[in-house]
Amino acid sequence: MFLPKYPDTPTPSPAHSHTPIGPFPARRSLPSVSLGQKTVTAVLVGGVVLTALLAAVAITAISVAIAAVVLRSLLRDHRRR
Predict the structure, then answer these.
(1) What is the C-alpha separation between 11 and 67, in angstroms, rounded?
(2) Residue ranges of the chain whose pLDDT lies below 70
């Protein structure tokens, strides 16, 4: 019932008669993009590392400043007594 019906005689496939007009120009390979990707990756990683170091230095400086203010306040109160 659902079996395919094949033709009794096979029909020949049409012949392709495409001939090139002339010699093809030599293809030039595109420059490698991997070097550019490596450079971009290195710059991004370097930027992230430098930003993290800058943030760490800023947090440390703020912490030291707060500690200095607290110690100064404690020493001033201790001298007044």
Answers:
(1) 94
(2) 1, 10-35, 81
Strands (E), 1-81: none
User: What does the alpha-carbon distance between residue 17 and residue 73 come to, in Å, rounded to a whole number?
Assistant: 97
Angstrom distances, CA of residue 3 to CA of 6, 7, 8, 38:
9, 13, 15, 57
Task: Say what the pLDDT of residue 6 is.
Answer: 72
Backbone angles phi, psi at 26, to 5 degrees: -65, 135
Residue 9 has a pLDDT of: 74
According to the model, what pLDDT value does residue 8 have?
Answer: 78
Cα(51)–Cα(59) distance, integer angstroms? 12
